[in-house]
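re the bet — no i am not wrong, look at it urself. input seq straight from the record:
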Amino acid sequence: MNGHILVIDDERSMVDLLETDLALRGYKVSGFVSPTVALEALLTTDAQVVLTDLHMPAVNGLQLCERVVANRPDIPVVVMTAFGSMETAIEAIRAGAWDFVTKPVEMELLAVVMDRAIRHHNLQEEVRRLSNKPAPTDRFEEIIGSSPSMQRVFDQIRKIAPTSANVLITGESGTGKELVAQAIHRHSDRKDGPFVGINCAAIPENLLESELFGHAKGAFTDARTERKGLFQQAQGGTLFLDEIGDFPLSLQAKLLRAIEQRTVRPVGGDKEISFDARILTATNRDLEVAVEEGRYREDFYFRINVIQLDLPPLRSRGNDVLLLARSLLQVFAHQMGKSVTDFQASVAERFLNYDWPGNVRELRNVLERAVALTEFEKLIVDDLPERIRDYRQSMFRIDTTNPAELQTLEAVEQHYIQRVLQSVQGNRTEAARILGVDRKTLYRRLKHGEESQG
């Protein structure tokens, strides 16, 4: 079913026509010729939208709009008015109608309006549901998500945490890989030990070895004292190596040996020092492709990837974006001392439609900015950055003869690849299988698409 529509018209033939046509389009329809009876049914119905005529005896469409808004404000009202009666339509909007269509009704257009109204109703319901504190199942530590993909992540964390296995956390930038690493640590037997993290991409190659393994006194200029590396600092706890995909090829053999032997040799030192730390790593790169292209050691890849945990991008997590937005709004409102308590349904709609290339990190930035700038108790669309306010999902027309609406083959290919990736939560191995290409070909085509857009 596409949704439940309550139809009201004092002409039985019109009700029958609308019921038949809308039912054929997949809607559940409840028809009434009496506005009074319809209003009584409305108090207990699960209808998502009311479609009503304006000119009816006893209770006219304007009065019905007012009654519905007063008793069931969650249900949008769409009114039908005679062609050219714009003043009457405007009156209906003022009375609380959500939209209007003109008679004679064009059924294709009506179906579009019904879909929008049902989506609006469902969106309001979701925003209302999320106004309450997230359910315990909607979060794991600091990670929030009720979508099936995130529930699977939570289950994996519970299973992985008690083990001593090395874990590779993969996912796009901004998906929360470090939060997952911290959650694994806190639910492991090492939770009382230190959690030590490093961004491998942020440390120059000539300093990275010393940072990880430590150095002896006099090992190099300015090495005036002995220094323990991160492996030793993480003794009894967890060492988290973020952006491991950027780890220099020249140092991978040394890091592999340290992980396998459970010992490190400080730079300039002459003896091995044992350590006891669990190794967690994370990357936003496709390491299998890097191995195939000779940019990554295969033995090193297999050593850090005993268990792989994939984080889905925000765009594939459905209503999680609203759950996260509400939680972040509360945090920033408290930090800034502002009485911002909610966001309008139109804001929620923008959040759901936007692709979030920067994932949760980008959402966090957007909410912090919006709370800082808003002058209202509810965030409005104008509080959002222009890229989100004016965002339009890319649509490709193939059922058209208008050359202006047709796309290049390359553009259609990129759009389809992205659509497949979204459907499999960013899993490139699965996407390559569906597309019928190997991972290296998929990676090459994605890279070409990024360069074309750049």
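see?? Residues 107-130 form the longest helix (24 residues). told u. also The mean pLDDT is 86. so pay up
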